[in-house]
Amino acid sequence: MADLASVTEHIRGAVGENSGLGKTVRLDLGxxxxxxxxxxxxxNSVSNxxxxxxxxxxxxxxxxxxxxxxxxxxxxxxxQGKLKIAGDMMIAQKLAPLLKR
Length: 101
What we know:
Number of domains: 1
Strand order of the largest sheet: 3-2-1-4-5
CATH superfamily: SCP2 sterol-binding domain
CATH architecture: 2-Layer Sandwich
Radius of gyration: 12 Å
CATH class: Alpha Beta
């Protein structure tokens, strides 16, 4: 089972130097922690800081892992209330490819 550090490192690799997002995104994974993607600065950075962001995606850790493994459809998760988005929803949609494992 993945942990927050390995998932953060995977996302850091997927984001790379310049993801093209051009915004900040915070993944709120409840008690497990946060993943903050700063795609405004170049090179982009990924950390576990709890900072305000242009978009915040909130979900439980188990749902996040299922989504990243392709076992949970992002749209279904949103419709079922398993995935909540605050802020810029368009950025959240662009984020999906970066989360795949």
